[in-house]
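Example 3.2
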Amino acid sequence: MEQKAHAEWFQTPVQQEQRARELAERHLKKPTQAARFPRIQGMFSVTVIVTFQDGSEGVVQFRYEPLDPEPFRRARAAMGELVPTVELLGDEELRAADLWPVYLSFIPGVTWLERVDQWTPQHNVRVARSLGRMLAQGVVGGASADAIESHILPKLRGLLESGYAEIQPFAAQIPGLIDDVHLLDPLPLQITHLDLNKMNIMVNEEGEITGLVDWELSPPPQPFGMGCSRILGLAGQYEDGIYSERNEFLEMERGFWEEMVGHAPVAVQPTLRGHPEAVQIGVLIGTVLDVLGTGTPGKFNQAALRALPKFLTYRIPALRGADPPYTL
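Structure, written as tokens:
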């Protein structure tokens, strides 16, 4: 993505930090003492971390598109302080410059991306298990049938109707998923993160997750398993656009599932353990929609497309037992 051209009064780091401090002081009505940029910036915003004189910290983002705060609020209601609060800030000058400012609570730690290749395997296993426990908090119950009719079936049918060349190699498998989709009916709903990657997962030095950020594109709750396909990529690695499993893949993947099912609400655990085939279908549908459902011609994630044939042979631990996770 090309760097966004900013107005003259918002081009330099000093200007951006100063504007963030002004917005934070106006919003919280208390003085700041410093501002800094995170080590890694996102593609669709300028993010500034502001330190107040009382030592507390907050985040001001200057976003390039409007933000819907509802996914954040929904996730925070289930997961608490692991999800940042988000508040829209009014500023006519920024809006005239096509910038949408927001204030978010500060999530401590660093991105997993900054540590994953430096850490011991056990650190990464700890993160995967911590992620399972966190996502278990997003199991909110309710009926999956409505989500199937309103979200999943239209998305799957839309893939078949799109005619995109990137989708054609997988088109023969989609009708089978449509036929099996109502196997998801018994499963509880779960809050899912649409862009679960190592840059959006914050961790401490012990390998425990301190929070998940960037919820803005996440859908309403989906049937359990739909949002779990990303564990395959998180426990793997891409080198030169080619996917492979990390040495600690099995420990990470099995630990993730063990913690997520084991820490789901007690009332739904019998359902999750009693319907592994349904969970498997949820993972497969989630995988297909994750890779194929967010692309447009010429803008698909090519590394994910190359990995998709392998991902579609994945079997969850509850079904495969001691067998390998993939058959390809």
